[in-house]
Amino acid sequence: MIRNSINLLTKKLISSTSCQRTRMRCFSSGATNLVDVNVNDKTGIAVVTLNRPPVNSLNLELLTDLSKTLDELESNRSKGMILTSSSKTVFSAGLDILEMYNPEPERSKAFWTALQDVWLKLYGSPYPTAAAINGHSPAGGCLLAICCEYRVMVNDFTIGLNETRLGISAPSFFISSFRNVLSTREAEKALTLGTMFSSDEALKVGLVDEIATDKADSINKCENFLLEFKKVSSMARAFTKQSLRKKDLEELENNREQDLQLFLFAINQPIVQKGLGAYIQSLKKK
Ligand SMILES: CCCCCCCCCC/C=C/CC(=O)SCCNC(=O)CCNC(=O)[C@H](O)C(C)(C)COP(=O)(O)OP(=O)(O)OC[C@H]1O[C@@H](n2cnc3c(N)ncnc32)[C@H](O)[C@@H]1OP(=O)(O)O
């Protein structure tokens, strides 16, 4: 009993010493630890790192962890969040295609509900958000980035909503958050073509706000953006952001069940299953 308490105390001391060194508080989001969180004690800004190798594809467990993290940030009155990835080349490969291929009914319901939760919490968060896009960011990966208020992308990667290239349509909340960033004209062109933008093209069209040389630079630039809000009342800021995004948020809030049923219907179509199967094979053959 005493030895256990000493072990616990030692562990706490070791972890607090390593966090003191960088002036960071560390917490993990839950049981599966697919999301790491480091809060800078000086600025109060949390760096949230997606950590599901090899490509951070968004499965039920990763979405659940991210959702819990967003709850914690909100209840801790976070000063801001930077979303990034532990991979050197991929921010997130989007939704885990295996969650949609040969779907198991209960799991696919839970999966889509978790995605809706993450979108509502991230797109509507009261604290400011920025994405340090340190790798490729197709489809659902791009969705996470466009939910944030600011995007800094490391050079030489690609980003976009490429769903039509997979033979599916981007769901309506993907489209509304894309339109919040791009003009309707640019959004329509990119969505129908399934365009994947290079970092430079993304900057030109306004899909990202800045280009960075590497991950550290992207986090630094995101931090500079978030620190600008030190001068602004957090209540006024949050109210303004949520007012601007209210229609999009209400659209999903009021139609969650319908959106879920549409997803289940779509992924259960034989033609969609065939397309997803071929796509999985093409990824494996690379
Ligand atoms: C009227 C209709 C109304 C709408 C109804 C709704 C319909 C459903 C909507 C569904 C919405 C979907 C949005 C999505 O997010 S779909 C996912 C789209 N993602 C992609 O297209 C990305 C695919 N991946 C890549 O392009 C590349 O992997 C990469 C991200 C560029 C990285 O390349 P890299 O060379 O580093 O890595 P590999 O390609 O070798 O991949 C490594 C292993 O990871 C597997 N992988 C990759 N991506 C995924 C994924 N998204 N899901 C699951 N698994 C993935 C890949 O197969 C490799 O596996 P292996 O090691 O076993 O071979």
TrEMBL record:
GO BP term, pick one: fatty acid beta-oxidation
GO molecular function list: delta(3)-delta(2)-enoyl-CoA isomerase activity
CDD domains assigned: crotonase-like
Gene Ontology CC terms, in alphabetical order: mitochondrial matrix
InterPro entries assigned to the protein according to its UniProt record, in alphabetical order: ClpP/crotonase-like_dom_sf, Enoyl-CoA_hydra/iso
Keyword field: Acetylation, Fatty acid metabolism, Isomerase, Lipid metabolism, Mitochondrion, Transit peptide
Subcellular location: Mitochondrion matrix
Any single Pfam family the record assigns to this protein: ECH_1
Catalytic activity: (3Z)-decenoyl-CoA = (2E)-decenoyl-CoA; (3Z)-octenoyl-CoA = (2E)-octenoyl-CoA; (3Z)-dodecenoyl-CoA = (2E)-dodecenoyl-CoA; (2E)-tetradecenoyl-CoA = (3Z)-tetradecenoyl-CoA
Pathway assigned in UniProt: Lipid metabolism; fatty acid beta-oxidation
Main location: mitochondrion
PANTHER family, per database record: ENOYL-COA DELTA ISOMERASE 1, MITOCHONDRIAL (PTHR11941:SF45), ENOYL-COA HYDRATASE-RELATED (PTHR11941)
Functional note: Key enzyme of fatty acid beta-oxidation. Able to isomerize both 3-cis (3Z) and 3-trans (3E) double bonds into the 2-trans (2E) form in a range of enoyl-CoA species, with a preference for (3Z)-enoyl-CoAs over (3E)-enoyl-CoAs. The catalytic efficiency of this enzyme is not affected by the fatty acyl chain length.
Assembly information from the UniProt record: Homotrimer.
Protein name, UniProt field: Enoyl-CoA delta isomerase 1, mitochondrial
Originating species: Pseudolycoriella hygida
Gene: Eci1_1
